[in-house]
Amino acid sequence: MSSSARPRPARTRTARANALATATVLLAVGLATACTPDDAGSPAAPPAKATATVTGATGATAAGHTAAGAAGTTTIGRTLYSGGLRFDVKTAATTPATDTTGGRLVLTTTVTNTFRTTPVNDWPTISVDVNGTPLAGDHGTAVPPTPGASNTLPITFTTPAGFTLDGASLVLGDPGQNQAVLPLGNGGRPAADLKPLDLALPAAHTVTGGRLALTLKSAQLRADTANSPLKLGERALYLTYDMTGTVGPAGMAVSGDSLRLRLPGGQEVGPSSAPIEAIYPDRPTRQNQAAWFVFSGAADGDYTLTVTDPDRNGTPATAVFHVTGVTAAGPVG
After folding, report:
1. pLDDT class for 82, splitting at 50, 70, 90?
2. Strands (DSSP E) along 2-115, which ranges?
3. How many Å apart are CA 328 and CA 303, to the nearest integer?
4. Which of 42, 69, 180, 237 could form a disulfide with 172 if both were Cys (CB 3.0 to 4.6 A apart)?
């Protein structure tokens, strides 16, 4: 028998079998790596993180606004009024939610007490409306500024996953009240800044009815008051004045009964808040007084103030304030 016809050694057959088995295992591993089924329980790759710094127009980015899930700072530069306070909203900084924490929105504002002498005791309700869902704002331990003063106030909101400024609106005030509304991006609720209307005073600033004279200092038509929110659509005429009485030794007591306001439609209202003062010969003047007239159905036109002697002595006197742009601050109905 020739050497070419001899059977191969057993070890050679074994080596080929081992090589084949090894190749089969490597192929199976390669296939498993290339195609893992959705339910194999492998952890998902972490989401991509994007950071955008935004400046300029409200919410402006190359795509329009800070994208959902992205961090960034947007310049707002708008003003709202509520509860006697002016909120200058400067920037909105967003941080996206994660698997373990909610997102965050921080509005940087400067708040001013618009009154010279009246303290504001409480903050209005502060929220961000996201497509009908309110997110409560946290102003920490800060208190409203004193009359005429301004303070910086950061307001923090916890936001859901996917939050974006588009469709979100800053809201000051409760439902059923006049609410100041500022859309923070595209969409959102209709804007209403509740900015007071400064009214021109009559040429003769002093209005004298009998023994009582009011020297008018300022007049505003407002959609808010200092510490008592107005109902939806209500307005208030806010007057400041110095008050002087020409009286004898017995003096004279002055209250809101001496003041009336006739609206453009003919309705007359008395003040919802007015000083009660006693005037005597040695102290005939009371300075920096304020009266509020609250009413529904505000409209453009003439608002007529009547000043009457407390004892109905002499002839009542009137001052007329001409008002236009009542609806610019917000709805009246």
Report:
1. very high
2. 50-51, 70-82, 85-95, 103-113
3. 18
4. 180
Q: What is the pLDDT of residues 91-143, one digit of tens each?
A: 999 999 998 888 999 999 999 999 988 999 999 999 999 989 999 999 999 99
Pair 302, 320: CB distance under 8 Å = yes
Q: For 236-294, give the secondary structure using H, E and C.
A: EEEEEEEEEECCCCCCEEECHHHEEEECCCCCEECCCECCCEEEECCECEEEEEEEEEE
> Do 153 and 111 contact (CB within 8 A), yes or no?
yes
Which amino acid, 106? V
d(CA 124, CA 144): 10
How many residues are present in the chain?
333
What are the tens digits of pLDDT across the range 295-319?
Answer: 999 999 999 999 999 999 899 999 9
Are the CB atoms for 272 and 324 separated by under 8 Å?
no
Distance CA 71, CA 84 (A): 33
> pTM of the predicted model, to two decimals?
0.77
CB 139, CB 123: distance < 8 Å: yes
Contact (Cβ atoms closer than 8 angstroms) between residue 274 and residue 286? no
Contact 129, 189 (CB under 8 A): yes
Residues 6 or more apart from 1 whose CB is under 8 A from it? none
User: What is the DSSP secondary-structure string of 114-137?
Assistant: --SS----SPPPEEEEETTEEEE-
Backbone angles phi, psi at 152, to 5 degrees: -75, 135
- Tokens (6 digits) for 246: 């020409």
- Residue 7 half-sphere exposure, CB side, CA atoms within 13 Å? 4
